[in-house]
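Many introductory courses stop at the sequence. We go one step further.
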Amino acid sequence: MKTNIVLFWILLVFFVLLTAMYTIWALIDTGRVEWVGTVGLGLCAVLSAFIAFYLQLVNKSSGGLLPEDRLDADIDDGDPELGHFSPWSWWPIFLAAAAGLAFLGLAAGIWIVYYAVPLALVGIVGWVYEYYRGNFGR
């Protein structure tokens, strides 16, 4: 994680310098500041600082040394429990289709969204409660 923190601090410096160069170049070329690019590059610098600061706080609170940072670490040293996933579940596909239909409704006609929202709700409920019924109920 320390490498990631350093990389994001380097990105902050890079984007700050790039923002300054972009602004100076725009002033030399047109005589005025081009605000869209200047603000966009400045916000990239701010985002890099936010991520670096957050990762630094997480690194400090987790003890500072993760298994990924050690040179003598094995693959098994990391946390094996990454979550519970259902490889046989069809609900994510159903939910993705409903979301695709909703985005199609936003692009083509708002009336399609009225059909997509109930399908998305059914998909969410089905995915959340799939372990509470049938063969997999506990």
